[in-house]
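Sample 3 of the quickstart, ligand glutathione:
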Amino acid sequence: MTDLILTTFDWVPEAPRGYVRDLRVRWALEEAELPYRVNSVPFRDRGIDHFSHQPFGQVPWLTDRDISIFESGAILLHLGELSSKLMPTEPHDRSDVKEWLFAAIASVEAASQPWSFFKFSGDTDETPMRKFFDSFLEARLKHMETVLAGHEWLVGTFSIADILMADVLRLVDRFDGLAVYPACRDYVARATARPSFVKAHADQMAHFAAAD
Ligand SMILES: N[C@@H](CCC(=O)N[C@@H](CS)C(=O)NCC(=O)O)C(=O)O
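Result:
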């Protein structure tokens, strides 16, 4: 009997498969070799119980006995407390990991997510809004390129900060947005070559395929 239960949708359409955020949690759990099981909730018919765990009706959430946590960043922080494979023990390094975890969400994903919506929609019109999001993302990526050049991982050894940052940059890479950022591209390739990512990704694909 395991204490850690990850909840995700039972099914999603083809396009987001491999990118649903339960992958960040699966990746961390695999990396730390923590036992867990995966629970499903309906994608189409989201019930009261779903909203009681995730107030926006989204996924993922994680329960650890009587603690229920939503927001992938908060879940990763929780798991980081459970394993030094996910978060270093030295106080300065721990602080740096937390800072980069928030930077991945609040600074890089804040720019990459609206940019990716244009890509998903196939909208290629050069509207002022589209140009704004192109340059917003560029402003973040050019600095990430400097940060990642010459660094294997964000803070010493691999951590939850890398899981989040690599997952955010991976979506940009999907739409060829890292073409002129070789250090970012290499970082994503390095992170996603880890056996823990490969397993997490395969498990997510199999999970959704099983419901087709
Ligand atoms: N900030 C949330 C975002 C969660 C999120 O966007 N989840 C997506 C799947 S990756 C979802 O549930 N989409 C369905 C919806 O928004 O209705 C997190 O990081 O956990």
